[in-house]
Amino acid sequence: MERKVINTPNAPTVGLPLSHAIKIDNLIFTSGATARDSKTGHFIGGDIEEQTEQVLLNLKAVLEAAGSSLDKVVKVTVYLTDIRDFDGMNKVYRKFFPKEPPARSTVEVSKLAIDARVEIEMVAGV
What's this model's pTM, rounded to 2 decimal places? Predict the structure, then answer.
């Protein structure tokens, strides 16, 4: 089993003890991503649609750095701090996965780091 750390300057880094993703053989496991600006690392805030858009752009950059893409995603886990944001998150999510979307779980959690409204993690093939 070959394990490779994936980090990219095209996704935010904030000095946390984590990698953007880990590649094991032909699978990529991303860390959970929140709505941080990819250049500054600062949290962008905003409504659920703005946050979801930024999160998915960041994850897209991580997957590309690992030699993959959104169309190779097989599993997504979405964490929402308010399940009433489900429809707004889905509105943006559909733009990134317009057909044959990956398997997905969506759960409500009590709180996320930096008061984010959404955090998303993915598993993708190469």
Answer: 0.96
